[in-house]
Amino acid sequence: MAQQAWAVAGCYPRAFWRAMESDSSKQINTGIAVVNLTNETNTLQLRLLDDQHNLLATAERSVSALGHFAAFVNEFGWKTPDDQDLAADFFSNFVGLFEASSSGNAAATVIQTRPGVFATLPVVPSSN
Known about the structure:
This protein has one domain (about 15-125): TM1070-like (Hypothetical Protein Tm1070, Chain: A). The chain has strands at about 15-25, 30-35, 40-50, 55-65, 70, 95-100, 105-115, 115-120, 125. It is mostly beta strands. A hairpin with a 5-residue loop joins strand 3 (about 40-50) and strand 4 (about 55-65). The strands form two sheets. Strands 4-3-6-1-9 form a five-stranded antiparallel β-sheet, with no helix packed on it.
């Protein structure tokens, strides 16, 4: 029987974005869950922007064939435009945008935690 990948949250073939929030004092964290819908490794190019849409950092994440992952915004190994690691406390109080473009079809949903709450939110398709 052939393997199948199912996605409920949002199947946007190549690119998506979403606002992200992280505030350690309020125990808020936001991230992304992605499933690769292809039979080949899928590479995600990630961009982190401030609320004025200025590029703060980039990262890359590979997802194996029909594989999946979930990670909070502070778990991607972000590099600044001058190839420096983001400061350890960068996400202690952050509001900005997360953009992703992929080398193949993927489905994604945003995950967010707050005290006593775990929520999923849709991603927004992008033309990147």
